[in-house]
Amino acid sequence: MTQTPATEHVASYYAATATAGDARPSLSGEVNCDVCVVGAGFTGISSALHLAERGYKVVVLEAARVGFGASGRNGGQIVNSYSRDMDVIEDKYGLDTARALGDMAFEGNRIIRSRIKQYAIDCDLKDGNLFAACNAKQLEGLREHQALWQRYGNRELEMLEGEALKREVTSERYVGALVDHSGGHLHPLNLVLGQAAAFEALGGIIYEQSPLLELTHGEPARLRTPGGTLVAERVVLAGNAYLQGVIPELEGKSMPCGTQIVTTEPLGERGRALLPNDMAVEDCNYLLDYYRLTGDGRLLYGGGVSYGGQDPTSIEAVIRPKLLKTFPALADVKIDYAWSGNFLMTLNRLPQFGRLNANVYYAQGYSGHGVTCSHLAGRLIAEVIEGESERFDAFAGLPHLPFPGGRLLRVPLSALGAWYYATRDRLGV
Ligand SMILES: Cc1cc2nc3c(=O)[nH]c(=O)nc-3n(C[C@H](O)[C@H](O)[C@H](O)COP(=O)(O)OP(=O)(O)OC[C@H]3O[C@@H](n4cnc5c(N)ncnc54)[C@H](O)[C@@H]3O)c2cc1C
């Protein structure tokens, strides 16, 4: 039996506390535009907003609702740089590439903060995120990480151990941590909804419940949805893990992966005791846990990866044991929300930017750390459409390979690899 695709936000804490809920119409008939953006997540809406600010007539096609995908469901952690860090980029792709990407490693974060300020977006922005080491080897890795980021210009880093660590996170699981004071956390659905509203205020149009069914390349390109056709001079594909079955060229070198989040009931003082300075935390394990307090004082806790993007039968059964391992005192706490979302993983964990044609661009595959990079992608897409291609091409030039095992075996092989690395984490080697 084929499943009908979902078309409304998942029942998450974010959807329950969204600042704007009005549905938008779907596309009907034939509409012309300068640029059609497919997908209304961070990548799509960031691109659309940057382009609208530059005077382009932009139309966004969204299969479901603005922020339906990972952008409206994620951990909300503003993590700087990329999923594979600058040392790996230096080793694998050379110093020139590393310098080009390193110059942009902290820009997505700055874009988010300037958007929030410029458009007065209410999304519970808080400063500071913390990478927590579960063993001595991870702590050593964090020291190297600090030196690396400092070399690329981030001076807002601080190593914490002992009492200083306890002042930030009162879990016994960690031997130390690296704080990035320039990072932070926020309500991601409200961030994307706020930027969508800013885009519309500039004259941009968003059609919801309007999935792209077929792209006919050409100048202009034609994009068919169930109710109509968009005729566009340029196209931006920003469907990430949710754009499956329409553009096969984008699927060969990436894999959708699921991860799950729960949110407790509001914890008040108990919550503040866990994270006294309200920073976001992610640990350094291969299969990492990530958590933070929400604007109304709940613990939002995520973790786990399902390769291929299949949802577990019970999300709470997956995440509650992780939460209790970190904070055993929360055994009596009620879980109010539990949901899942898909991100797009690449083999080298670096984002995929590129062109399918002279006038069709894409950006995807942030491999689990996409809050900042998707915002950077939007700016770079606007630049390349205006003819400034250097920064976009620094990403587009990165080589990408298919996952070993092809579509059939990539999921079990990746799970096997993850089991190996998770075992090493457990053993601290
Ligand atoms: C549970 C979870 C937790 C995460 N936590 C963090 C975190 O804390 N920090 C961090 O940095 N990153 C995190 N990430 C990753 C981050 O959320 C993503 O990298 C980022 O949001 C990707 O944005 P996007 O716009 O590219 O994709 P998405 O937000 O997935 O948006 C794609 C959009 O395209 C639409 N679409 C798909 N197909 C079509 C079509 N045919 N026609 C029209 N529209 C279409 C979808 O409906 C969707 O709205 C997390 C991801 C998940 C799933």
UniProtKB/TrEMBL annotation:
This is Gamma-glutamylputrescine oxidase. Residues 34-383 form the FAD dependent oxidoreductase domain. InterPro entries: FAD-dep_OxRdtase, FAD/NAD-bd_sf. It holds the Pfam family DAO. SUPFAM superfamilies: FAD/NAD(P)-binding domain. It comes from Franzmannia pantelleriensis. One of its GO terms (cellular component) is cytoplasm. Keywords: Oxidoreductase. One of its GO terms (molecular function) is oxidoreductase activity. The keyword Oxidoreductase applies. The keyword Ribonucleoprotein does not apply.
